[in-house]
Amino acid sequence: MSDxxxxxxxxxxxxxxxxxxxxxxxxxxxxxxxxxRAVCALVEKASxxxxxxxxxxxxxxxxxxxHYTLSEDMTAxxxxxAVWNDSDIAVIFARLAEPAVHxxxxxxxxxxxxxxxxxIKH
Length: 122
Known about the structure:
Elements: H1 8-24, H2 28-46, E1 58-60, E2 68-70, H3 72-75, H4 78-84, H5 89-109
Antiparallel strand pairs: 1-2
């Protein structure tokens, strides 16, 4: 049995800004962009920059578990496999997907009423 690596410290680094950005997103597309940025930032930090992650490699799937997919271009990289195998990164990605999914659902229910102007001081 091999040791499991944990990237929870990296998750804690990006989480406050990520939550704020997701909460401020005015559209499902913006939520998708924030999720992709967070996943790419996390995997790039975890691999010390060895993994090539483009935002197009990460897709948020609000209507189906585990709520995200990763492109084969990214998952086929040896550096990605080194990070993915025997680590908690899949669980972290699922945790990052939760607020994004909730925000997408909220935006869907309140289309046209979502107002992010309350974040801007006049």
